[in-house]
Structures are given as C-alpha cells and as structure tokens.
Amino acid sequence: MAQAYARHYPIAVRVARFENCYGPEGTWQGGREKAPAAICRKVALAEDGPSTGSGQGGTIPVWGDGSAIRNYTYVDDLVEGIYLLMQSDLEVSTNIGGEEYVTVAELVQTVIDVSGKDIHIEYVEGPVGRPCLTLRENTERPVTAAQGTNRLVGCDPQRIVAESLAILDREGKAGRMPELWDGESAKRIAAALRRRIR
After folding, report:
1. Which residue has the higher pLDDT, 11 or 127?
2. Whole-prediction pTM
3. Residue 101, SS3 per DSSP
4. Which of 9, 48, 62, 143 could connect to 178 by a Cys-Cys bridge, CB 3.0–4.6 Å?
C-alpha cells in the first residue's frame, strides 16, 4: 500500500523483508519463539542420556525431516540493515538477512553439541513438503514456487479462498525439494574455491 501511495505522491518508501531474527529479548516459549530459541529450550529441558525410544529422556521432537533451509539473522545486524536501507535510494522490496543458510538438522545438531548432552532427535511429520500459499505476488525465494510446493496467490480474497479449499481437498500443488537445497552449499563453495586457487 505504501508503494502504491508513493507512485502518486512525493514520499520515499522503503520496504524490508526480514529473514528469521534472533537475539536478546526474543521469546523462548509459548509458540511465538523463533527456531533457535525453541531448539535451545528443547535441548535445555531434555534429560541428558540415551534415548529410551519413548520420547522421554534424551529425545527432542523436531518438525519435518531436518532438510528445511533457513537463514538466521542476529537482531543487531537486522537493525543495522534497516538503518542502511533507510539511508539508501533503493525503492524495491529488499531482503535483510545473511548469506549463510543452514538446514534445521544442522541447527539442532549445533545446539546439541554446544550443550554437551547426549540427545536423540526425533523428526516429526510437519509442514515440510506440504502445499504452501504465499499471500503476495512475489517471494524472496522464487525457486520455492517454481520447483517446490509454494503457490503465490496475491491478496485477492476470492483467489485465497479458492486456493485454500483446493489444499483442503488434497488438490494442492505437488512439488519437490529445489535443486541444491541439500544443506551442502558450503562444501560446494569450498570445492569451487579450491579448483580456482589451484
């Protein structure tokens, strides 16, 4: 709406899209916490020791299969990004986040390793690979719409309802994990650099 207003009136508009933000003062319980805080809480509360197979003692549940890829941005870096965006001449929607993506499995294992506990990860069926509706005309990850299960539906209420009903009737978009979203990009980059340096 702000961008539409700016097309007709002399006002500068900056639109930022935030990656997953974490840091002090972020909630760590109650369902509104970000993944790093939720995983830290689960690991902190889990009993140390081998899994009993019953979901008790040494086991934490994690949604999905661990392959989902995320970018986590520290709150101070996000604030700096907002400041730089406001000082810029950019007039397009801008993603504010880092360039390093990690899989959920990598994040969980890092937290477990830092804790020093012996904890088993129980992957629980979740939203990964399920139909997804994005209520805008574009996305910061277009490959999720081109290859994955994401469908861009915009803001038209009739289209949103129709697409939602299609998902409920099991007619949602089938997709696949986008190519190279395997959590191995750091290894590929290192290999490419080694080839270039030689």
Report:
1. 11
2. 0.58
3. coil
4. 143
